Amino acid sequence: MRLPKQVKIVEVGPRDGLQNEKTLISADDKLALIEQLANAGVNYIESGSFVSPKWVPQMATSSEVFEKLNRINNVTYAALTPNMKGFEAAMAVNASEVAIFGAASESFSQKNINCSIDESLARFEPIMLAAKKANINVRGYVSCVVGCPYEGHIEPEKVADVAEKLFNMGCYEISLGDTIGVGTAASVKTMIDTVSQRIPIEKLAVHFHDTYGQALTNIYTALQSGIMVVDSAIAGLGGCPYAKGASGNVATEDVLYLLNGLGIKTGINIEKLLEAGWFISDKLDKKPVSKVSNAYRAQILK
């Protein structure tokens, strides 16, 4: 098997996970979660998003979170910045780096941000110029890489087109997101093979939702294809807005259990990670989506 010896986990729970949770979490609790994740050995944490609080109320405290962070050396505290105003706000509170996003589906782009794919990418050009001037890394996301809630199947070439444009704009890494979680091992392999013909495999990451229970299988397939960076959310935070009642992001605990079982190094302590997941789940008054987390907790409570 062609598997990497080491994998970087990009923790998206404090941003992508919490933004879909209805229960509002205070800045102090977000800070406690981020600190627990960092102490567990997670070295990349997407800590907030600089978007309009009107549209994403959960992210209204992002400036406060970044201002109060107890930063640990070698930990990246990243922010999502959809426009220049967001980028400037992220820079004002010393975000380590920023992320921008495009979609592989024209319908998704039009219905969500009211513009075409090319128009959406053009909006990021000022951010890329400013980031380069400030020596700030920019990560790129591509949504709907295997399926779209409006168009259905997405051709891999479309994904490759958008990913290549983001990469050529200056994004150092492109995260390929299965936004509605419809991917299978076969569709994921085909998509990664196609994209990696245009972008070096070491510059690609994967971001799977677990709507149909295929996220871990798809991650394993991605690892076999040479992927070495995996996005995930502590406790499986976040719902899937396009599939009612479905789970969202794959749980970091489950990903770590998979990687540990394969002998792949991450530098993350699973016991401390589980504590972080239980902490935020208790704040949300819900059980973790993570099967690994629930299994561990059941053993403790025996």
UniProtKB/TrEMBL annotation:
Q: What class of enzyme is it?
A: lyase
Q: Which domain of life is it from?
A: Bacteria
**Pathway in which this enzyme or protein is active:** Metabolic intermediate metabolism; (S)-3-hydroxy-3-methylglutaryl-CoA degradation; acetoacetate from (S)-3-hydroxy-3-methylglutaryl-CoA: step 1/1
MF annotations from Gene Ontology: hydroxymethylglutaryl-CoA lyase activity; metal ion binding
Name listed for the protein in its UniProt record? hydroxymethylglutaryl-CoA lyase
Stated EC number for the protein is 4.1.3.4
Q: Which UniProt keywords apply?
A: Lyase, Metal-binding
**Matches recorded under InterPro entries:** Aldolase_TIM, HMGL, PYR_CT
Give every Pyruvate carboxyltransferase domain span: 7-274
**Mind telling me which NCBIfam families this protein's record contains?**
PRK05692.1
Known Gene3D superfamilies for this protein? Aldolase class I
What family classification does the UniProt entry report for this protein? Belongs to the HMG-CoA lyase family.
Gene Ontology biological process terms from the UniProt entry: ketone body biosynthetic process; L-leucine catabolic process
Please spell out the taxonomic lineage of the organism that makes this protein: Bacteria, Pseudomonadati, Pseudomonadota, Gammaproteobacteria, Alteromonadales
